[in-house]
Design the sequence.
């Protein structure tokens, strides 16, 4: 009986982790697209909160403030990674190279 309850609890925890992980991933992808289109890190960072909130309420009908803050923090880390690797500059130079051909 105890083993079954423990396995059920673990499966619920893993289900919630995967659910929030999926929401954070989708939010980060959409906010990164906003960053690439606008080339403005602040707009991308600030758009992560409303994107997460809208997705959470659309699909799961609930959200928490701490999860919105976590989504924005993940987007800040993504922006820092993009800036550190200079990925946005490489995308712009690739686009300019294809335009000149």
Sequence:
């Amino acid at each position: 009986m105890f083993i079954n309850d423990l396995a059920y609890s673990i499966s619920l925890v893993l289900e919630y982790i995967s659910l929030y992980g999926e929401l954070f991933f989708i939010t980060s992808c959409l906010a990164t697209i906003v960053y690439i289109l606008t080339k403005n890190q602040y707009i991308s960072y600030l758009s992560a909160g409303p994107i997460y909130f809208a997705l959470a309420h659309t699909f799961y009908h609930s959200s928490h403030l701490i999860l919105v803050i976590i989504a924005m923090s993940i987007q800040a880390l993504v922006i820092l990674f993009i800036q550190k690797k200079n990925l946005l500059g490489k995308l712009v130079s690739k686009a300019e190279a294809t335009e000149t051909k």
Summary: The CA atoms of residues 81 and 87 lie 9 Å apart. The chain has a mean pLDDT of 86.
